[in-house]
Amino acid sequence: MILLDRVTKIYGRDAKPALNRVSLHIEPNEFVILVGTSGAGKSTLLKLLTCEERPTSGKIVVGGIDYDTLKEKHIPLLRRKIGVVFQDFKLLPQRTVFENIAFALEISGMTNRELKNTVPKVIELVGLVGKEKQFPHQLSGGEAQRVAIARAVVRQPKILIADEPTGNLDPRHSWDIVRLLEKINRYGTTVLLTTHNVDIVNRLKRRVITIDHGKVVSDQAQGSYRQ
Ligand code: ADP
């Protein structure tokens, strides 16, 4: 499903590699936690997967798509297969919860009728029934992250990338979000989570890939994390 073969990314001409010959294989429906100190190369890895950045060398194949042969015009299609959520939610402030989630569907050409059918299902999945008409500033951090997750999964991506999704949340809301990611994973989506939260990593008992100075330094089936 996700395959990296000796992937290297060097940003500047004289810069050290942000990623250095990284090889990885992630199966469909896995739940993988990516850890590493700041600057280790986690974001670079995620940006290569979403094609925001291109590798300097090495091979990337996601869902059967070989990035070497991927044309610019096909990138939006690829991004539909990969949902992304961030630490800072990135919601549209002038739009309601419903509209924030519907927006992703509108731009992919879904009719109003289909939209009215699909969006409530996702709102229910993420536990936001009753909040449809609220605006982002009226939501708690945990609720805002649920909207971001709903928006990321509404087009049924094969992969969900959650880049520090709990970074702005208190422990209780953090765990709510992690449980929601697990639920989405159970429904058949591969989840790739980055976090600095040691408690989450150690209690989840999932595969943990540790990156340090651009290299994979450990890959454990039921990993733990020490800072
Ligand atoms: P992490 O997400 O683990 O904090 P990053 O992937 O952001 O790590 O960064 C890895 C290395 O690449 C760092 O040394 C960082 O300074 C460098 N880097 C990241 N993005 C860029 C960029 N756009 N241009 C130049 N260097 C970058």
Task: Please describe what this structure looks like.
By secondary structure, this protein is of the alpha/beta class. The chain has a domain of 67 residues. The chain is 33% helix and 25% strand. The protein is built from seven helices and ten strands. A six-stranded mixed beta sheet has the order 6-7-8-3-9-10, sandwiched between helices. The protein has a four-stranded antiparallel beta sheet with strand order 2-1-4-5, with helices on one face. α3 packs across α4, α3 runs parallel beside α5 and α5 packs parallel to α6. The structure holds adenosine-5'-diphosphate. The site of adenosine-5'-diphosphate has 11 residues, from α1. Its main location: membrane.
Q: What brief labels describe this structure?
A:
227 residues; alpha/beta; globular; four-stranded antiparallel β-sheet; binds adenosine-5'-diphosphate; six-stranded mixed β-sheet
Bound chemical compounds: adenosine-5'-diphosphate
Order of helices and strands: EEEHEEHEHHHEHEHEE
On the 0 to 100 scale, the average pLDDT is: 94
Give, in spatial order, the strands making up the sheet with the most strands.
Answer: 6-7-8-3-9-10
Poorly predicted runs: none
What is the count of helical runs? 7
Report the structural category: alpha/beta
Helix content: 25-40%
User: From the alpha-carbon coordinates, what is the Rg to the nearest angstrom?
Assistant: 18 Å
For the record, give the distance between the C-alpha atoms at the N and C termini, rounded to a whole number.
Answer: 30 Å
For this structure, the quaternary state is: single chain
- Main beta-sheet annotation: 6 strands, mixed
Protein name: Cell division ATP-binding protein FtsE
Membrane topology: Peripheral membrane protein
Subunit structure: Homodimer. Forms a membrane-associated complex with FtsX.
Subcellular location: Cell membrane
